[in-house]
Every structure is written in C-alpha cells, then in structure tokens.
C-alpha cells in the first residue's frame, strides 16, 4: 500500500471510530430518558460524515470540534426525576434538565480543558454534561467538575474507547431500570427495608456510568430465568 492509500485508509478508520462513538453517545442519552430522534439513533456512517464533516482536512473527515449536542429530558424522564411532594415542598422541582455533550479535540487533556467545559455548563445553565476525551485526564483535571455539584449540576467524563460499543446491548447484560423516588419508597415499604440494606452497585460500574446513575438511587435489574421466565432484583447505588 502506497503512502496516499495508507493515509486514506487511516482517515477512513478514524472516521468510523468517531461515528461509532457518536452513535453510542445518542444511545446513552436515549437510555437515560432524553429526547433523541430515531433518525439520530440510526444515523449511517455516510449521514454522519455529511452532517459533521469538517472540511478538507488531510487527517480527519470529521473533526471533534463539530461533535457537540444539547438534549432535553423527555416527559417520562421529568416525571421520573421529580421528587415526591412533601408537606414542606408541595411542588418539588424536577432534577431532570438539559444535557450538553462535547468531544475534546485535544489528545492531551489537563485542568485547562475541564475548567473550560465546567465553565460552559455553568454559564449556560446546563444541569448535566458529558465530556469525552481521547485519553484519560489526570485526577486533578477531573476535580474541576467537583464545584458543579454544589450548584446542583453534574459533569461526567468518558473516554472515546469506552463508547465504541453500547454495553447494554450485550446478551449477558440484563435490563436496568432506574426507579423514581415514589417507586423506590414503595419498594422499601413493601419489604420493610432501608435503602442501605439493598444489594449495592457502585456508581462507577460500567452499566451505572452508562445510565448516569447517581448515589442514593435504586435501579431495578430484570434477568431471564429458565424456570420463572424473568425475575427482578434491585441495587442501591453508592
């Protein structure tokens, strides 16, 4: 293979890589309850290039600075993520909100890039954000997201390679369903349990991270059974 053909193949491989990552990003958002169209979920590689191509770049057909999006919560997500009304708070505000997703174009990522991302979320009142990088940022860089929690905001980080495949589609991965506050209360009352008495799942677990599960939430896991058909278990996120 000559140099020109090799460069063309490398460019095609990089484009396919970004397409697969971006397709999974949309699947992540849809799984969490955001409004994502079927057209976006089924976007072909050619459509991806047409929509996000960055011009006559010799290395990339699609450049990462083009890959950013905003998604709004669906009605079902808003209902699920609205706390139960109490005597003190009869009209609670939903914790669901808009999310901003961005792919960092820089291969090496430090605190400068994460601070810029965190500042963008804050300035534009995004409730949630996902920052995607090529390499793993150091711990100091990711600490730039900590201050957002005090403002009721939440920023997450994914590496591109973690989004090449939708892990929830694997045949060995059971279905996970996040419970609303009301469903969580009904469950605990039914079995006379405290949430800490439930089996646990770390919020850093790949499935928990995919679904954006937060500490204190409860997720329902539906598994197949040869005898019972299906059965449900529950996990407390910690």
From TrEMBL:
Keywords, in A-Z order: DNA-directed RNA polymerase, Nucleus, Transcription
One BP term from GO: transcription elongation by RNA polymerase I
A GO MF label: DNA-directed RNA polymerase activity
GO cellular component: RNA polymerase I complex; RNA polymerase II, core complex; RNA polymerase III complex
Gene3D superfamilies: RNA polymerase, Rpb5, N-terminal domain, RPB5-like RNA polymerase subunit
Residue span, RNA polymerase subunit H/Rpb5 C-terminal domain: 165-237
Domain RNA polymerase Rpb5 N-terminal: 14-119
Locations listed in the record: Nucleus
Pfam families: RNA_pol_Rpb5_C, RNA_pol_Rpb5_N
UniProt KW Transmembrane helix keyword: no
InterPro entries the UniProt entry points to: Arch_Rpo5/euc_Rpb5 (IPR014381), RNA_pol_Rpb5_N (IPR005571), RNA_pol_Rpb5_N_sf (IPR036710), RNA_pol_subH/Rpb5_C (IPR000783), RPB5-like_sf (IPR035913)
Alphabetical list of SUPFAM superfamilies matching this protein: Eukaryotic RPB5 N-terminal domain, RPB5-like RNA polymerase subunit
Family: Belongs to the archaeal Rpo5/eukaryotic RPB5 RNA polymerase subunit family.
Name of the protein this chain belongs to: DNA-directed RNA polymerases I, II, and III subunit RPABC1
Species: Lithohypha guttulata
High-level lineage: Eukaryota, Fungi, Dikarya, Ascomycota, Pezizomycotina
Gene: RPB5
């Amino acid at each position: 293979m000559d140099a020109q053909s090799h460069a063309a193949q490398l460019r095609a491989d990089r484009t396919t890589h970004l397409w697969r990552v971006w397709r999974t990003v949309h699947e992540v958002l849809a799984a969490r309850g955001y409004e994502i169209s079927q057209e976006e979920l089924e976007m072909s590689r050619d459509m991806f290039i047409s929509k996000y191509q960055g011009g006559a770049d010799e290395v990339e057909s699609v450049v990462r600075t083009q890959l950013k999006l905003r998604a709004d919560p669906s009605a079902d997500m808003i209902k699920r993520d609205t706390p139960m009304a109490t005597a003190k708070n009869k009209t609670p505000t939903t914790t669901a909100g808009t999310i901003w997703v961005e792919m960092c174009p820089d291969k090496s990522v430090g605190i400068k890039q994460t601070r810029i991302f965190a500042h963008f979320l804050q300035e534009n009142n995004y409730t949630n954000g996902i920052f995607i990088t090529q390499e793993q940022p150091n711990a100091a860089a990711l600490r730039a997201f900590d201050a957002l929690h005090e403002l009721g905001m939440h920023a997450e980080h994914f590496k591109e390679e973690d989004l090449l495949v939708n892990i929830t589609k694997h045949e060995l991965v059971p279905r996970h369903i996040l419970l609303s506050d009301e469903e969580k209360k009904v469950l605990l009352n039914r079995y006379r349990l405290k949430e800490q008495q439930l089996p646990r799942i770390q919020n850093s677990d790949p499935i928990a991270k995919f679904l954006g599960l937060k500490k204190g939430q409860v997720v329902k896991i539906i598994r197949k059974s040869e005898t019972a058909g299906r059965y449900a278990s529950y996990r407390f996120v910690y």
